[in-house]
Amino acid sequence: MNSNDLELLKQLCEVKAPSGEELAMRDWLLDYITANLSSWKVQPKLVFGDDFQDCLILIFGKPRTAVYAHMDSVGYTVGYGNELIKIGGPKGEEGTILVGEDSNGPIEGKLHYAVKTRSEDEDEQEIDTVLQFDREVDRGTSLTYKVDFRSDDKKVTTAYLDNRLGVLNALKLAETLENGAICFSAWEEVGGGSVGYLARYLYNEYGIKQALISDISWLTEGVKAEKGPVISMRDSGIPRKAYVNKIIELARDSNIPFQLEVESSGGSDGNALQKSPYPIDWCFVGAAEENVHMPNETAYLADMDNMFGLYEYIMERL
To answer: Where are the domains of the chain?
Structure first.
């Protein structure tokens, strides 16, 4: 990954766009794409507007396959009395710095876990998650991790690699893609909600029945750093095996390092595709990271570069 890619990733991570507020990310992408598409191999058709809410589709040539990259991140919504309500599955630790803005100005406070009540009959505690700040924040305000972007010659550490790295992968693919669609989707961190109508549009207008999910997985006992991106054979969703096998064979032909992932939990935009009423095959392909949904997510440069290369190779041949 070169310095320009790292700078672009940093800018993506700094855009505040938790689930439900993807408009900021969509508009940032529109500005970036408009400024850069003249240098791409094929200039895409841009599809967005009221019928697509805060999402964005790029159409290249005669598309056969769609790549889905969700724009949203985890975060917190401020409830009553600075209580914090999760957006998706954030895993902020005590003292994590959260930022945002309400009608009274900028916010930068700390996440705090406070004992709310203790049951008299059971040895249990209820824990309140609250924002430590010098005033009460407007209820409904969204907060996200303060981004501290760090990189060295092996890895990147920052908040929101999930899924700004998946978005970067889609933008890198867009530079050389001749035939295909790229969908920047919404609400993935809270279970989806946009993929169904994006898939409907692509199926009805272009007959697209194949998809790759450009998202970030996690390092586990079976998935190691710097061994290549993962091709997921299953998580909480189970894609059609004939299609997954096709992706695996293409990956093997590419001679680009990759790993096979088999998980019992977790999910992606692929789950939403599987639940849609359209016969669309899907497969998750993405780099793995440490510290998932924390402010210090870490992914490795070699895995990122191999993710970029694998997508370019596979999309040329699907």
So the answer is: 3-73+149-317, 75-145
